[in-house]
Specification:
The complex is a heterotrimer of chains A (200), B (397) and C (249).
Chain A lengths: L1 E4 L6 H10 L4 E4 L10 E4 L5 H10 L3 H9 L3 E5 L1 H4 L4 E2 L14 E4 L9 E9 L12 E8 L1 E2 L7 E7 L1 E9 L2 E4 L7 H13 L2
Parallel strand pairs in A: 1-2, 1-3, 3-4, 4-12, 5-6
Antiparallel strand pairs in A: 6-9, 7-8, 7-10, 10-11, 11-12
Chain B lengths: L24 H12 L2 H15 L7 E4 L4 H12 L5 E6 L6 H14 L2 E5 L3 H15 L4 H18 L3 E4 L20 H8 L5 H7 L17 H7 L2 E4 L8 H12 L23 H12 L3 H12 L4 H11 L2 E2 L2 H8 L4 H9 L13 E2 L17 H13 L5
Parallel strand pairs in B: 1-2, 2-3, 4-5, 6-7
Helix pairs in contact in B: 3-10, 5-16, 12-13
Chain C lengths: L4 E10 L8 E7 L2 E7 L1 H10 L5 E5 L8 H9 L7 E4 L5 H9 L4 E4 L6 H11 L4 E7 L8 H10 L8 E6 L14 H7 L4 E4 L5 H10 L3 E4 L1 H4 L5 H10 L9
Parallel strand pairs in C: 1-4, 1-10, 4-5, 5-6, 6-7, 7-8, 8-9, 9-10
Antiparallel strand pairs in C: 1-2, 2-3
Classes of the chains: A alpha/beta (200), B mainly alpha (397), C alpha/beta (249).
């Protein structure tokens, strides 16, 4: 069973439908009691860092999520959900992330850079991971974001170049994050979701 | 027009792209096929699959059959090599040639298999031909969709778990590469087969004049139905290397399969597309749209194999391509279209950068031309209604 | 490197007021309905099979917003693994919320000048990247010059809210005479948002021209419906012409 955190502005439904289509058991959850026994959690997110952080606090999911992760539950953060795994973001400096990764997210800057980073872009795989099994070393995926997670050799498993090189795939122990939207990245995205579902 | 430096296919060929050597994606794909596919592993996969399905239903598999060399070879292989009991399903698009019908009878009688033929409603088919010509510059929508959908329904009805098709599309284009797992499924149907129009869409475009039931033979079954049955729909060409010339020789020898003279094609290629007498019109329309046609395709295959050189290929192409086929008159009569209308329609489907400024030359009539049936034609009124509706819109709220 | 994008546009309209509500997909000319061409769900599936970069699903009716369009969006999303932008008939934040909950990734809003509050609400709740602002104009609007028109739009203050700007010259819609991207350069120097253009494609050359001029994405409607060119074919073709477009997944 995969538990998908359904914050109000997330596209949890898209992730839900994707798993359903693959025959994977899943449900959308919105409060702490529902993740009591979670073994696999997906945190999708779109919009502002602050809004998602606030939702996690208000729905009392913040600490239970940290606890589940500490206990070994596997976690996949998608887009803003991945950024929430960090300490914080330039976007909403008063709000805290889950602190799984000791980094801060930054805004894309650059004279000729179109922002948000919207569209299909290349992910270069730096290190192999269960979740990246079966993908080519340079695969394309769909991105839609204005802030990015910087490269960190300790946790960047995949990187993308857009004005600056940034982390498009993060991993540490039982936690994985992807900056792009696997639920909207056609067969590459499906592979990643399917790998996450199969991840032992 | 830019052409592949190896096989001469032009840039107007669908999905073609060129590398820095000027070599096209179909050739490159072919390099992969020759060098990197582990055919024995693939064959082992096929054998494992066969073992699972054999004997589980009234028939082990369905073989969609047109009487052409590919489906005939596939049938032969399934019966002789794989020792399966197939149900042969033939979708009658309406234009079978006498020799093909003779082939079909001879083949099924020699091999000893059950054959099911389906001939769809001609009154709908002729309208579909005209609508499809207008929409896509390709009048064969009913045939493309019928051939790939109808046998699926038979599989579902009779609970047969496997359908085996012939060659993969990578032999001709770059929709898929050999590394891809090309299943003959709905995705492929939507990419290559239905010209971007499903039966549901076509029903709407024809003003809801026909019902959902009428469109069933052209409708791809839903995922749910297919999953229920766990129906596997695969191309034999995914599991064994495809060699059309050798396969044609084999079936001639073993089954008495005979080739035929084909409109607009050199005599030595009498194993290619012999089954349909509208093929000449089809090829001609393709030439007018894209500046190349069947002979270029055949030459591309030969050039890749090294059995002809570029000079020889170019000579054959210029000798045979782009001639107005005799069958065009039959076609225009059937659909009650004037030559002017026809010109107007196909010029709108020209593909850049082909400029279609060609002198119209007349092609040779094949030997059995007089036996090609002139079927009940659309009336002028019916035909004009469809054309006008396409040109001027049909929106009513 | 970020690829350029090809986006099929599926316009839907309720066409039968007596029968149970049925959405059909239509082709338009100058934004008015021209031909009924299919079933929207079928069209979404077909485009997805052709590996399009995104799908744009627009409800043409200006009537009251009700649950029927979100239901259509929801049904489209059942097997969807391609980004989906939806629009049409959105006039309040609650409409946007329902559409996002039904599976939309982005929402497109036109008439930006009179929808400022709505735009602000969507941008702050869902992020700028979820908002596409469509500037639908005619040749007449440009009669005092491109710069004057842009200045005027900029003065309404909505440019900074958009995650994407879409430019549509209504008069070109459905006529296949090429795309108008005259506003491109001026707007690119004003806003950082990516710019999508559409209306008027009838050849691959038209599409290539848009990208060469600097557009980030091109929408296609009539061209895909009335020729046998699919997105997959167009991709290979423009890639050969030097456009940086995704050619495989």
């Amino acid at each position: 069973m995969i538990d998908i955190i359904g914050s109000p502005s997330s596209n949890a439904r898209a992730v839900y439908f994707a798993f359903l289509d693959m025959g994977v058991d899943c449900k959308i959850v919105q409060d702490a009691t529902e993740i009591h026994n979670s073994k696999k959690i997906v945190l999708p997110g779109v919009g502002a860092f602050g809004a998602l952080s606030k939702f996690l606090h208000d729905s009392k999911l913040y600490e239970p999520l940290q606890l589940r992760i500490a206990e070994g539950a596997k976690m996949l953060g998608i887009c803003l959900g991945m950024q929430l795994l960090a300490e914080g973001s330039e976007e909403s400096s008063e709000y805290k992330g889950l602190g799984i990764f000791m980094n801060h997210c930054k805004k894309f800057e650059g004279a000729d850079l179109r922002v948000p980073h919207t569209g299909w872009d290349q992910v270069s795989i730096n290190s192999q991971h269960e979740v990246l099994r079966g993908l080519s070393s340079d695969f394309s995926a769909f991105f839609s974001h204005s802030y990015y997670f910087p490269v960190d050799i300790n946790c960047s498993f995949g990187t993308t170049e857009y004005g600056v090189e940034f982390s498009s795939v993060l991993a540490k122990d039982n936690v994985v994050g992807v900056q792009f939207h696997p639920e909207r990245s056609q067969s590459n995205g499906r592979k990643i979701l399917s790998n996450f579902a199969d991840w032992e | 027009m830019k052409k592949c430096s190896r096989c001469l296919l032009p840039e107007t060929h669908e999905t073609i792209s060129f590398d820095s050597r000027g070599i096209c994606s179909v050739c490159q794909n072919r390099e992969f096929r020759n060098e990197q596919i582990n055919w024995s592993a693939r064959r082992a996969e096929l054998d494992a699959l066969i073992t699972k399905v054999k004997g589980t239903a009234d028939y082990d598999c369905i073989i969609p059959f047109s009487g052409g060399k590919d489906s005939t070879f596939t049938l032969y292989f399934v019966v002789k090599e794989l020792a399966l009991k197939p149900l042969v399903v033939s979708f009658d698009h309406g234009f079978y040639r006498p020799k093909m019908l003779a082939n079909r009878n001879r083949v099924v009688e020699t091999l000893g298999v059950d054959l099911l033929t389906f001939k769809p409603n001609w009154l709908l088919v002729r309208k579909l031909m005209l609508q499809s010509l207008l929409e896509k510059g390709d009048f064969c929508w009913h045939c493309h969709t019928g051939i790939f959908s109808y046998p699926m329904w038979i599989a579902i009805e009779k609970r047969i778990p496997l359908i085996l098709w012939g060659e993969t599309s990578s032999e001709y284009a770059s929709y898929y590469s050999y590394e891809d797992d090309e299943k003959v499924d709905e995705d492929r149907f939507n990419q290559i087969v239905n010209l971007g129009i499903t039966a549901d869409d076509m029903k709407v475009r024809m003003g809801d004049e026909f019902s959902q039931r009428d469109f069933k033979p052209y409708t791809y079954p839903s995922r749910r139905l297919l999953r229920e049955l766990n129906l596997q729909s695969l191309a034999l060409g995914s599991f064994i290397p495809w060699n059309p010339r050798e396969q044609a020789k084999l079936i001639s020898r073993e089954l008495g399969w005979a080739g035929d003279e084909v409109e607009g094609v050199p005599q030595e290629f009498n194993y290619e597309k012999i089954e349909c007498y509208m093929q000449g019109v089809r090829d001609y329309i393709k030439y007018r749209k894209r500046g190349y046609s069947r002979v270029s395709h055949l030459m591309a295959l030969e050039l890749r194999k090294g059995t002809i050189n570029k000079e020889g290929a170019e000579k054959l192409i210029s000798e045979f391509e782009g001639k107005r086929p005799a069958s065009l008159d039959l076609f225009l009569n059937m659909l009650s279209l004037s030559e002017e209308d026809f010109e107007d329609i196909i010029q709108k489907h020209r593909v850049d950068p082909w400029d279609d400024r060609v002198m119209v030359q007349i092609g040779k009539k094949p030997h059995d031309f007089d036996s090609w049936q002139a079927k009940p034609a659309l009336t002028n009124k019916e035909s004009q209604k469809i054309v006008e509706s396409f040109r001027h819109g049909n929106f009513n709220n | 490197m970020l690829f350029k994008r090809l986006i099929p546009k599926i316009v839907v309209e309720k066409t039968d007021s007596l029968a149970p509500i049925i959405f059909k997909s239509i082709l338009t000319r100058a934004f008015e309905p021209f031909r009924v061409v299919g079933d929207p769900i079928s069209q979404v599936k077909i485009q997805q099979s052709n590996l399009v970069d995104e799908i744009l699903l627009v409800h043409r009716n200006r009537g009251l917003f009700d649950i029927t369009f979100p239901n259509l969006v929801l049904r489209s999303c059942e097997y969807l693994n391609t980004p989906l932008t939806v629009g049409g008939a959105v006039t309040e934040p609650s409409h946007a919320r329902i559409l996002f909950e039904s599976g939309a990734d982005k929402i497109v809003i036109g008439r930006a000048r009179s929808n400022l509050e709505l735009l602000e609400s969507i941008a702050s709740n869902y992020g700028a990247q979820a908002l596409v602002i469509s500037i639908d104009y005619s040749d007449d609007d440009l009669k005092f010059g491109v710069d004057k028109f842009c200045e005027s739009e900029i003065s309404f203050g909505y440019m900074g809210l958009a995650g994407e700007i879409a430019l549509n010259n209504k008069g070109r819609d459905g006529y296949g005479e090429g795309v108008d991207f005259r506003l491109l350069k001026t707007l690119q120097s004003t806003t950082k948002a990516p710019i999508v253009v559409g209306c008027g494609v009838s050849s691959v050359e038209h599409i290539a021209n848009c990208f060469r001029a600097g557009c980030d994405a091109v929408t296609l409607s009539t061209f895909l419906s009335q020729t046998d060119q699919s997105i997959k074919q167009i991709r290979s073709h423009i890639s050969t012409l030097g456009v940086n477009i995704r050619t495989r997944n």
